[in-house]
Amino acid sequence: MSLDVNVFDSLKAKLLIDSYTALLIDFIFLKWTLFSYYI
């Protein structure tokens, strides 16, 4: 039972990290696009 909870927690943490990484990549891409647009 505790193993299932641990697996679920790590999966949840991985999803959270993935979503934060996706947001960061989107932000950098948006900044780069705006930067290139102004140049």
Secondary-structure topology with pairs:
Layout: H1 2-38
Overview of this protein structure:
With 39 residues, the chain is an all-alpha fold. The protein has one domain (1-39). The chain is built from one helix and no strands. The longest helix is centred in the middle third of the chain and has 37 residues, at 2-38. The radius of gyration is 17 Å and the shape is rod-shaped. The N and C termini lie far apart (57 Å).
List keywords for this structure.
39 residues, 1 helix, mainly alpha
Mean pLDDT: 87
Tally the helices: 1
Number of domains: 1
Per DSSP E runs of 2 or more residues, the count of β-strands stands at: 0
Multimerization state: single chain
Structural class: mainly alpha
User: What is the end-to-end distance?
Assistant: 57 Å
| Basic shape | rod-shaped
Strand percentage, roughly?
under 5%
| Uncertain parts | none
Main sheet record: none
Helical content (DSSP H or I, runs of 4+): over 70%
Radius of gyration: 17 Å
How are helices and strands ordered from N to C? H
